[in-house]
Here is the input.
Amino acid sequence: MKIQSVKINLVRLPLEEPLVGAPPMPGMLREFITVQIMTDDGIEGIGVTTFGGKIVRTLMTAVQEFGELIVGDDPLRTEQVKAKLRAASASCGPGGITALAISAIDIALWDIRGKAFGQPLARLLGGLRDRVPAYASGALTRTTPTGKLEAAASALVEKGYTQIKTQMAVDGLTPAQEIERIRLIRDAVGPSVNLMVDINQRWNVHEAISIGRQVEELNLGWLEDPAAHNDYQGLAEIARALHTPVCAGEYLYGIEPHRQTLAHQSVDIVMIDLLRAGGVTQWMKIAGMAEAYNRPVASHLLPEIHVHLIAAVPNGLVVEYMPWTWRLFENPPKPDKGLMTVPAGNGLGLNFAPDLFKTYGVA
Here is the structure.
């Protein structure tokens, strides 16, 4: 089997929050680069990547150039293909655009592998479970007015979610006001709902410990990225000081930074971003490394693909259901009563939506 062609497209999806109709989050990802790799056996593998900034077309160019490099290669030799791409971009470093571009191709190669062997990706990678927990994300944002938080949180619970996430570090609010926002949500959903809080690196170590201690009585599921992602010692200090688990990792590129967080005991829960990690291949390696440290792993974005990965590994904790990518796919998996079912089709079990490129394609 050989790679015959690689097709790249750029799509721009609507700016929307479909769970409760919340105000769009600043920095919401809308533009995605899609990859379609065709083999000489007639198997098509699909992948996707994105960059939340102004240079998305630069990323698209990188994916196109990588695609040209792998025509004629064996799509089942994922490590060989990735080694070729890393060598071709060695002077650019292992992270950034290089990693995001390689990820899209790696995802498509694993889709091909699943289709070639007639197995869903989750089963190909271990097949521990067919359904996994998912939490609602992106509906309780910093831009949600305080007066609407309770209704929005209650609406998520009514939809069947038993786990939800909100944000702290709201511009213009004092710590006391922020704590009150979290308290309103907890009171609205009750003690049995797992409530997580995302900080997005907006606190320093002192603030994280001080505010974190004040919200511990609310029994939060985790505090996510409370301080700078590469402050391994600072995150470790926070983790030691709080009973609330610290979750971090979405900002990390590749394997090495995750090794640092684990070695420094900076995190209680490892969050892995499929695109920044380097694709399915690297995601699984990070999950295995986390398992060696007895740490569970959670996903970041792309729930339609991450459901396979969380279901495959023994330390898979939960899928972040951030519904920013559902329009990319035909019949995408969605949570039902707080659980996501692994697509039954071979490979990713996904196809791009029939009207995707016509409706949302960007020339």
